[in-house]
Specification:
The chain has a domain of 37 residues. Helix content is 57%, strand content 14%. The chain contains 3 helices and 3 strands; from the N terminus they run H-H-H-E-E-E. The protein has a 3-stranded antiparallel sheet, with no helix packed on it. The protein is rod-shaped. It starts with a helix and ends with a strand. About 6% of the residues have low confidence.
Length: 96
C-alpha cells in the first residue's frame, strides 16, 4: 500500500504518516527493549550513587567512633601560651 493510499484510508495527511514513521524508526529500539535492560548512563549513575552511599556510611561510622573517643585538643590561649584541654573531662591545663 502506498503512502497516498494509507493517507486516504485513514483520513490523515501523507506528511503526518511520514512523521509517525520517522518517530517510530528513531525510537523503535527503545520501545521494544527489555524493561530490565538499563542504559549505560543509568548504570553509571547507580554505581556512583552506591559509591557515595558507601562513603557516607564509612564517614558516619568514623564520626561515631570519634564522638566516643576522648581526645586532647591543643591550641593557643589569649596570652600566647599553649593550652590543652581534655575534651570530655572539661579540665583545662595551661603550660608555660
Amino acid at each position: 500500500m502506498t503512502l497516498q493510499e494509507l493517507a486516504q484510508k485513514y483520513d490523515v495527511s501523507p506528511g503526518q504518516i511520514s512523521q509517525w514513521k520517522r518517530q517510530l524508526l528513531e525510537s523503535a529500539g527503545e520501545q521494544f527493549e527489555r524493561p530490565n535492560k538499563k542504559r549505560n548512563c543509568e548504570r553509571e549513575n547507580e554505581r556512583e550513587r552506591d559509591q557515595l552511599l558507601k562513603t557516607v556510611g564509612q564517614l558516619k561510622i568514623e564520626n561515631d567512633v570519634l564522638k566516643k573517643t576522648p581526645r586532647v585538643v591543643t591550641g593557643q590561649s589569649h596570652d600566647g601560651r599553649t593550652k590543652s584541654s581534655e575534651a570530655f573531662r572539661g579540665r583545662a591545663v595551661s603550660a608555660p
